[in-house]
Amino acid sequence: MTKAPNELTIVEAARALRARELSVRELWDACHAVAVAKNPELNAFLEIFDADDAAIEAAQKRIDTEGEKAPVLCGIPLGIKDNIMIEGKIASAASKILENHKAAYDSTAIAKLKEAGALFLGRTNLDEFGMGASTEHSAFGPTKNPHDLSRVPGGSSGGSAAAVAAHLVLGAYGTDTGGSCRQPAAHCGIVGFKPTYGAISRHGIIALGSSLDQVGELGKSAEDIRILFETIRGHDPLDSTTNPEGLYPAPQVPAKLRIGVPRHLVEQEGVDAELRAVFDAALKKLEKEGHTIVDIELPMSSYALASYYIVLPAEASANLARYDGMRYGLAKRGQTLLDDYLESRTEGFGEEPKRRILIGTFVLSSGYIDAYYRKADATRAVLRKEFNDAFAKCDVVAFPTAPAPAFKFGEKSGDPVAMYLEDVFTVTANLTGMPAISVPMGSVEKEGKQLPVGMHFTAPHGAEALAFRAAEAVEEVRSA
Which domains does the chain have, with CATH numbers? Predict the structure, then answer.
């Protein structure tokens, strides 16, 4: 091997483990040592776990016994976002209100990973309850971007993205409510994915927006993402929102894709000019390789961000009502029961959760639910139809993942609207429930630093294979 073990992709590490070029213990130790050394400056992990000797030995024995038949993730160290429950481990969602909350059971995703023999290096940092696009809103300090420590890694799955980009782990899981895996992946120069809504169980995931949340994957290549996704996908009787098998027909995946580009959105004000030039150059390379670029119109997508920031706060205000100081989490006691509620929630929640709870309560209140929430919710059906109509002309729809490369700490934290605009290209996939992926397409220079930027592809419902193929096409032209 020419790479250090922690720098391998999942595919490369799995091959090395089966060829006896590397042991599970050596792979774990390499990742653990680098994580311990680098985490103090990155803050990608809220907690780095000690070695689980029994799990490491079991993974090694399974690989030795089963060889190529062993699951690909067997013996692979992964990062797990701190809102995905691992039995016996803290699951805080980066909030003071759950700072000491230990998970009583495994989420379905974790149970499937344990069954596959995967190893968990630690729990990764995030914006509190997944509310943010920079990981500045964590109650336990921000995560830093490995490419420039003065800049954010994106969010809310910024800890998972930074951990993969800095080679602390080979892959990681996050959650994606409005771009929370894809946007940090773009800022950190890795691949991030959000599957079709219902493709993966949400059982054991700390909820933010129940109709939007989905477990997402972060990795070093599109093939790694495919493996991470396939390992945990599938119907779950513990989650009634998971899709039954066969709901969506398997898509035809052509060697050469028709890529739809909504120029009116890409060229809107606020999109960094240098990033747009990199996006256009990447499209030209794809076209040169035989893929077809198709101009499309998505007029209702201009309203997606506004609709999202009505639907999401409404669902968040309902989901976060359970943290009341009575049943679990932080509990403060005042003179009255109302004081108990007020003091527990005031001290336990950060500024961003408070802001979204207030917005959500407002848009659901009598007299305003019709004016705001129901109209925003109705927009989702229009967006789904608009994208489905576009898919009659193209296989995937392409945008830049974010309107600009990673920004500096504090640059947008005082302006919530500017922060929300980070999601302008990613929220539509969550509103429509469609799969979407971000893949590195190049970099732009800012203040002497090369900052990665991503290309974003949205595919039809159930057509994850098309999204993976589009990401692979970008990887192919970049490596040519």
Answer: 1-480 (3.90.1300.10)
